[in-house]
Amino acid sequence: MTEVVTINENAAVTTEALAHLGEGMIAYVKPVRSEDVPGLFPQAPAIAPGLQLFALHAADGTPIMLTDSREAAIANAWSQELQTVSVH
């Protein structure tokens, strides 16, 4: 059964459609602690604890890349023609 999410009284979006919103066009940068890296990037080498890093994620939350600067993450998004958005 497909659940329908009502955004306002004039529009309804399925949860499946909502999950794919922005796919291939939008990404977001999220600060992460080095201790959280193995869960996001299992293939990453061991990283010293206590570091502030930045992960670039696809619109659906899939991790794309990990870096030590927010600017590098944004530059990588732009190089892949992805628009970055703020997430709070």
Counting helices, strands and paired strands, the structural category is: alpha+beta
Number of strands: 6
How much strand content do the residues show? 35-45%
DSSP helical segment count: 3
Side by side, the strands of the main sheet go 5-4-3-6
- The termini sit apart by 30 Å
Overall pLDDT score: 82
Which value, in Å, is the CA radius of gyration? 16 Å
Structural account:
- It is a single chain.
- The longest helix has 10 residues, at 70-79.
- The chain is elongated.
- It has three helices and six strands.
- The protein has 88 residues and is α+β, with helices and mostly antiparallel strands.
- The relative contact order is 0.20.
- The chain has a four-stranded mixed β-sheet with strand order 5-4-3-6, covered by helices on one side. A two-stranded antiparallel ribbon has the order 1-2.
- The chain has helices at residues 15-19, 37-40, 70-79; strands spanning 4-8, 11-14, 26-33, 52-58, 63-67, 83-85.
Brief description of this entry?
The chain is of the alpha+beta class and 88 residues long. Helix content is 22%, strand content 36%. It is built from three helices and six strands, in the order E-E-H-E-H-E-E-H-E.
